[in-house]
Amino acid sequence: MSYLPDPGRYSHLDYRRCGRSGLLLPPVSLGLWHNFGAADDFENARQLIHGAFDAGITYFDLANNYGPPPGAAEECFGRIFMQDLSRFRDELVIATKAGHLMWAGPYGDWGSRKHMLASLDQSLSRMKLDYVDIFYAHRHDPETPLEETAGALVTAVRSGKALYAGISKFPAEQTRQICAMLREAGVPCLVHQLRYNMFNREPEESVFQAIRETGTGCVAFSPLAQGMLTDRYLEGIPADSRAAGSSVFLTEERVREHGEKIRSLAALARSRGQSLAQMALAWVLRDPVVTTALIGASRPQQVMDCLKALENTRFTAEELSIIDGMADRWALLFPMGAFAFSFYPVFPESGQLQELPEIAGQGEHIARNTTVFCRFPGLPAAENRNKK
Q: What pTM value is reported for the model?
């Protein structure tokens, strides 16, 4: 039986303007970073998309390298789109990104025009789309001129392959610079996507101010801190949890380090009549600089539970003070572009793809096989390429 979306889907949410643009986005959006890979249950993925759209979520966020393996999430979404959603294309905001390692060789990652535009063509093919609504530069490339990355975004929009240009995880100064370039070219930057949650307060130090100055919107990813800001880890680390698995982004050690904070925040959430996840999302959305909170989900019911966060988004001064005391101090010591972690696929000797953390901005590292090569500020590019 063909999918028929809920006719009342637009009565559930109050849509928020994305920066100074004319585009409205839902306060909660669905990311396809996890649970849409080749090994994941396709019917479950399909139900996740259906449930989100039925609830009024119109923004679906992808990247070329989401999977695993890289490209698998876009292929999965393409199947769902062709099967269920092609009739509703004008009601969807679909985004993809380029800039992380996607294929072997010198053109498979970073911010060159060669990589960005080739990646966009590949993404459109995988998703069975004529265009994406938002095309992001997935990270700042310190060795490619900003003018080149900006030019690739401009070409993507002018060619009709993207409606809007966006950036992700750019430091504050580079945010200002690339936004100025895009504005001068007549393709203003729509949105900046960055990691933000009650533990990671880093964007508050400088990037949020740059976002306000440039008039871009803001997509906050990892608002639940990879699941730590949920009830999942209140009683320890379940054997079937992400932290108990092979993820480098959420480890058992990291969960244990945050154990007391998680329990304290969960108690505060209960006093507000919310789950920890609902409070975490409400907190991210408290600041109007954030347009939408980008969630991941493994079950359709999780999407519905997250949307209940919108029933109570007010915080008292005392509640905010308690939450302020839970921030990771290291995240406040280093500005964005010094230490930021995100998805990074590499090609190990086995030929299989895996994930590694990255150090962004001036500390970007490149992984080849199982060796990590770092870029150190102040060294020539040739030396940086070979510095471990």
A: 0.85
Nearest to 37 by CA among 210, 243, 296: 296
Q: CA 106 from chain center: how many Å?
A: 25
Residue type, 105: G
Mean pLDDT calculated for residue range 5-27: 97
How far is 233 from 243, CA to CA, in rounded Å? 9
Query: Could you give the C-alpha distances from 137 to 177, 277, 340, in angstroms and in order?
Result: 14, 29, 16
Q: If you search the block for the tokens 């430091």, which residue do you land on?
A: 171
Please state whether 227 falls in left (phi above 0), alpha (psi between -120 and 50) or beta. Answer: left
- Mean pLDDT across 312-333: 87
Q: Which residues pair with 137 in a beta bridge?
A: 98, 167
Percent of the chain with pLDDT over 70: 80
- In the chain, the amino acid numbered 258 is H
Residue 42, classed as helix, strand or coil, is helix
Q: Are 157 and 165 in contact (CB under 8 A)?
A: yes
Q: What local confidence, expressed as pLDDT, does residue 305 receive? A: 97
- In angstroms, how far is CA 295 from the centroid of its own chain? 9
CB 120 within 8 A of CB 98: yes
Assign residue 140 a region (left: φ > 0; alpha: ψ between -120 and 50; beta: otherwise).
Answer: beta
Q: Please give the Cα distance from 108 to 105 (Å, whole number).
A: 6
Q: Please report the beta strands in the chain, taking only residues with DSSP state E, as ranges in sequence order.
A: 16-17, 24-25, 28-31, 59-61, 93-98, 132-137, 162-168, 189-195, 217-221, 292-295, 345-346, 354-355, 365-368, 371-374
Tokens of 207: 């990037």
CB atoms within 10 A of CB 133: 20
Residue 303 CA, chain-centre distance (Å), reads 16
Q: How many CB atoms lie within 10 A of CB 32?
A: 27
Give me the amino acid identity at 295. Answer: I
Q: Which of 126, 325, 296 is nearest to 227 (CA)?
A: 296
The DSSP letter of residue 81 is: I
Q: Structure tokens of 5?
A: 């979306």
Query: Tens digits of per-residue pLDDT, 84-96?
Result: 999 999 999 999 9
In degrees, rounded to 5, the angle at the alpha carbon of residue 200 between the alpha carbons of residues 194 and 22 is 30
